[in-house]
Amino acid sequence: MLEGKRINLRIIEKEDLEIYNKWINDINFVGEFIFIRQQSLLETEKRMFGEHSADNASFIMEKKDGTRIGVVLHFLSKLGFLDLVEIGYMITPEERGNGYCSEAVEIIVDYLFILKDIHRIQALIVEENVASQRVLEKNGFKKEGIIRNVGYIRGRDRDGVLYSIIREDWGQPRILTGV
Ligand SMILES: CC(C)(COP(=O)(O)OP(=O)(O)OC[C@H]1O[C@@H](n2cnc3c(N)ncnc32)[C@H](O)[C@@H]1OP(=O)(O)O)[C@@H](O)C(=O)NCCC(=O)NCCS
User: Fold this and answer.
1) What is the pTM of this model?
2) Which atom of ligand 1 is nearest to 138's Cα?
3) 91 Cα: distance to centroid of ligand 1 (angstroms)
4) Of 41, 44, 66, 155, whose CB is crowded by the most CB atoms within 10 A?
5) Which of 123, 35, 34 is nearest to 84 (CA)?
6) Domain residue spans in the chain?
7) Maximum Cα–Cα distance for the chain, whole Å?
């Protein structure tokens, strides 16, 4: 368990499969800027637990009372011959705007820089997703540039914005200070 101030991140377990599958099949949950491809419980289970490793993991965001409110994940992302560490996150619509995702990103960034000998963490966001960009900027991520036509989402091609934080920007743990 990774403990923050108002939320904790807990590695996803089989008991979370149902809620997670419900979330990612819910158009309101994934929001306007993520694919809405529907997937079965079986497919979700394979994706969640088939490739689970230190390189590829999903965490449930929980409030301190144990209420599950969202997910934050990290995975290896290919850039040419390079494997780069990327993060993503989603939170239930009723809990948005409370600063929870910003805290989740703060925790996962600390965790990854403490865990791994890596020099950068990146996130690729649809250009119109202003809230998500704000979450990254609040955590010290810098905008690197536009990736044109990165994906076909909700009926049209979208441009993406690539953000990163490098180890020098991060410096030292910000929230996981007790580890
Ligand atoms: C994007 C998302 C993760 C943000 O989560 P959240 O918990 O609401 O984020 P926070 O409350 O920590 O911070 C959101 C920030 O964006 C700002 N914001 C929200 N909507 C905005 C908008 N339309 N325009 C400008 N800023 C906006 C908020 O004011 C806040 O900034 P502040 O703290 O400076 O006021 C959430 O909206 C979500 O789950 N969306 C659907 C999935 C998604 O798009 N995930 C990201 C792609 S990887």
Assistant:
1) 0.96
2) 34
3) 9
4) 44
5) 123
6) 2-170
7) 46
